Amino acid sequence: MSGQDSTVTQLLGQTPSQTVGPFFAYGLTPQQYGYDWVSIAGGDMADEATPGDRITLEGQVFDGAGKPIADAMIEIWQADGTGAFATEQGRNTRFTGFGRVGTGMLGDGLFRFTTVKPGVSVAGEAPHINIIVTMRGLLMHAFTRVYFDGDARNDMDPVLAQVPPERRGTLLARKTSPGTWRFDIHMQGDAETVFFDL
Amino acid sequence: MVKLLNPRDFSSQPGYLDSGYRSTALRGPTKPLIPIRGVSLAAPVYGHDRIAPGDADLTVNGRKEGEPQGERIIVTGRVLDENGRPLANTLVEIWQANAAGRYIHVVDQHAAPLDPNFFGGGRCVTDEQGRYRFLTIKPGAYPWGNHFNAWRPNHIHFSLFGHQFGQRLVTQMYFPGDPLLLLDPIYLGVPAKSRERMVAQFSIDVTEEGYALGYVFDIVLRGENAAIWETHG
């Protein structure tokens, strides 16, 4: 047996995923839902003083019947305006790049983040925001990415290039007004959002 | 630079569409996931400074006028990667029903009493050995609408980040010997070979004399792939 084989056989088994269920709000997004406990992150990630182009990223999550989902949790993780990710060492930095909201407080399953448009973190990639979607009825969370419609760098992005052209549009946020970008997530259907195995 | 992760072991994971768990039918993605290879991304930076030492004691953090009702338990364990390495300084968040099987969440309408002295949310950061520890109340079982006479087994929800974005895990911890486990579509949604990884072990060593029963629940996240690291490093 080679050394590599013995390493493989010694791997511990990954703990399986389970649904976040319908009642996560007081534990994971307490402040947003009005519970008396401080949240570790929320939807307001940037303010006037944050360097970069301040944007609002908003949208809805839809189920396979086209109905908005009001008990999903959306987490976003992104670089700052210069393309740099916050690090543990710099955790008191003004902009952490991490946001977390539930879709139950704005009506019609809407989510909204106030953030900055990310810069390019890896040469050759287009600006994008990483997303984790989780909800009741989803036994394992789903990863996706938001790109910005009209950004010329999208054409060169190596991850978008792996997505069939007819589905790339599901990863594009579209500008609805100055500074506001709309990104809807479709769990199923013709417009099913591309989810990644990261 | 973050090392690349071993793949997610889908043979140990539930599927997105599960005939027993009705809510998956309209919510689980139907198209295959598209693999992103060669991307490494550290875990999110969140509000470490917002985590208070008392957040890990659920028998205290919701008190208004006295002690919460129910059976005190200690839930502890280590967060490891597949290679057995402890993940230090990583966030563990939990939430759960009270002893009567009722969540404080406003949407929970189960006709069981709320406990004015129990909130049900907790969190802590693992120590250098990857260890976490909560003091809480054993959660009750409760009915849900999935099918006739459906009851969720006693469980505690867990949320973890690990050290990399791809290690994110949301799961549930169950209790040993619970007769509801083999009737629960959410538990059964996981392949049989890996279900018991979600079941805590009773431990007399963790149990505190005259005070609280102890349970051990170790959590294993995807590990760093040494072979790939060598290739790309």
Give the arrangement of secondary structure elements.
The complex is a heterodimer of chains A (198) and B (233).
Chain A: H1 3-9, H2 25-28, E1 54-62, E2 72-77, E3 98-102, E4 110-116, E5 128-135, E6 142-148, E7 172-177, E8 180-182, E9 185-186, E10 196-197
Parallel strand pairs in A: 1-8, 1-9, 6-7
Antiparallel strand pairs in A: 1-4, 2-3, 2-5, 5-6, 7-8
Chain B: E1 34-35, E2 72-81, E3 91-96, E4 121-125, E5 131-137, E6 142-144, E7 150-152, E8 155-160, E9 169-174, H1 185-188, H2 192-195, E10 201-208, E11 212-216, E12 219-221, H3 226-232
Parallel strand pairs in B: 2-11, 2-12
Antiparallel strand pairs in B: 2-5, 3-4, 3-8, 6-7, 8-9, 10-11
Explain what the structure shows.
The complex is a heterodimer of chains A (198) and B (233). By secondary structure, chain A is mainly β. Chain A is 6% helix and 28% strand. In chain A, strands 1, 2, 3, 4, 5, 6, 7, 8 and 9 form a nine-stranded mixed sheet that branches. The radius of gyration of chain A is 18 Å and the shape is globular. Chain B has 233 residues and is mainly beta. Chain B is built from three helices and twelve strands; from the N terminus they run βββββββββααβββα. In chain B, a hairpin with a 5-residue loop joins strand 6 (142-144) and strand 7 (150-152). Residues 228-233 of chain B have low confidence and may be disordered. Chains A and B meet through helix 2, strand 5 and strand 10 of A and strand 1, strand 3, strand 4, strand 9 and strand 12 of B. Strand 10 (196-197) of chain A pairs parallel with strand 1 (34-35) of chain B, so a sheet runs across the interface.
Structural classification of chain B: mainly beta
Q: What is the CATH C-level name of chain A?
A: Mainly Beta
Care to count the β-strands of chain B?
12
- At the fourth level of CATH, the homologous superfamily of chain A is Aromatic compound dioxygenase
**Any idea how many domains of chain A?**
1
Estimate the strand proportion of chain A: 25-35%
Count, helices of chain A: 2
> How many strand units of chain A?
10
Structural class of chain A: mainly beta
Rg calculated over all Cα atoms of chain B: 19 Å
> Which ranges of chain A are low-confidence, i.e. pLDDT below 50, for 5 or more consecutive residues?
1-8
**Oligomeric state of the chains present here:** heterodimer
